[in-house]
Design goal:
about 325 residues, alpha/beta, Rossmann fold, Dihydrodipicolinate Reductase, domain 2, 6-stranded parallel beta sheet, 15 strands, about 35% helix, binds 1,4-dihydronicotinamide adenine dinucleotide, binds (2R,3S,4s,5R,6S)-2,3,4,5,6-pentahydroxycyclohexanone
Length: about 325
């Protein structure tokens, strides 16, 4: 069976997902694309054998030949695409963040619960990365004892100067670290604090870097460094410190070369290079689940819980205070 996909948003990651749906994965085909930048949508359609360009997301979602919807527009536009796709009963892959506020995520959850079955997978791809999976398996295997702290480092070489705002360091970037902290520690965040050292002058007025401390409900701590103008490459690091040991996320560089008194390896340029296999795996799982009529992977509840932490972290960054994270009751639809 071939799942016919409509793609909303044909920017950087939209184009990358179109490439993998067209050239890498089996059992899927991009039949429709749309973007508020029509020229960009046309250029993306031209990279596929058959995709048609639609004027807007509503008509794309309603099209009979669109069986599943992949949303890769800007975060603030996600809710407006998700709600009609849910009403149409079509499986949805939505890039992270699910939406940029807790309230918007709650509306999405209520709409999915009203449908009565899971239709949304959120693009938290780190859960599909081999190194993160090995880290989780180590924690769950119990050899290092109960986890006490998770240290996460999230460094981008650069971010688009005209589009990336200070809030996005939390709502667009740190959301990945919030996701893996919850997933690795199997717990929710109770309180969050955000500190800001002297600004990186490369980013101008941007609040960069930031350092967050999340107190998990069960008593563990998670710390996060987000730096988005660090220049040297895309560097993702993580370490669990536990009662009887520690486990560190492996470097993605496959080889270290020693030569002329130096040793060196590659730092990925950006997220596309570092997580290419994880993106392939998450979209392959989404296609397989859509072919069977459902979805798996990170859920709308995960997106909601992460947005709750993200909102609290933005308040914490403004006030310098620790801010509590308030979560509603998790609907039974999201029980594991
Ligand atoms: P981008 O700015 O390159 O592309 C976004 C595209 O969405 C633009 O072409 C824009 O014109 C379009 N767009 C905006 N509003 C729209 C609407 N209402 N309808 C249709 N198109 C609309 O941004 P990028 O980097 O591709 O990010 C897109 C989303 O993917 C964001 O939510 C971002 O957080 C996420 N992302 C996830 C990554 C991951 O590692 N999982 C990596 C990069 C982005
Ligand atoms: C981008 O949207 C992503 O999701 C990347 O994984 C992240 O590292 C980057 O900071 C975000 O802007």
């Amino acid at each position: 069976m071939t799942v016919r996909v409509g793609v909303i948003g044909t920017g950087m990651i939209g184009q990358d997902h179109i490439r993998r749906l067209t050239k890498v994965l089996k059992g899927c085909e991009v039949v429709a694309v749309t973007d508020v930048d029509r020229a960009r949508a046309k250029a993306a359609a031209a990279t596929t054998p058959n995709a048609r360009v639609f004027d807007d997301s509503e008509t794309l979602i309603a099209a009979d030949d669109v069986e599943a919807v992949l949303i890769a527009s800007w975060g603030p536009a996600h809710e407006a695409a998700i709600l009609p796709a849910l009403s149409a009963g079509k499986p949805i892959f939505c890039e992270k963040p699910l939406a940029t506020t807790q309230e918007a995520c709650l509306r999405i959850i209520e709409a999915e619960v009203a449908v009565g079955r899971r239709l949304i997978q959120v693009g938290f791809m780190r859960r599909y990365d081999a190194a993160y999976r090995a880290l989780k398996a180590t924690v769950e295997g119990g050899s290092i004892g109960a986890p006490l702290m998770f240290h996460s480092v999230h460094r981008n070489a650069t971010v688009p100067k005209d589009l990336y705002t200070s809030d996005m360091a939390v709502s667009d970037t740190m959301v990945h670290d919030i996701d893996v902290a919850r997933w690795l520690l199997d717990d929710e965040v109770g309180r969050v604090r955000v500190m800001t050292p002297r600004r990186n002058s490369v980013g101008g007025a941007l609040r960069d870097p930031i350092f967050a401390v999340m107190e998990m409900r069960g008593g563990a701590l998670a710390t996060v460094e987000v730096s988005v103008n660090i220049g040297y490459g895309y560097d993702i690091r993580g370490e669990i410190s536990a009662e009887q040991g520690a486990a560190t996320l492996a470097e993605s560089n496959p080889v270290v070369v020693k030569h002329s008194g130096t040793f060196a390896g590659r730092v990925p340029a950006d997220w596309r290079e570092r997580f290419i296999a994880a993106y392939d795996a998450e979209i392959a799982e989404w296609i397989a689940a859509a072919a069977a009529g459902g979805v798996m992977g990170p859920s709308a509840w995960d997106g909601y819980a992460i947005a709750a932490v993200s909102d609290a972290a933005l308040k914490a960054a403004d006030t310098g205070e620790a801010v509590s994270v308030e979560l509603g009751e998790r609907p039974a639809l999201y029980d594991a």
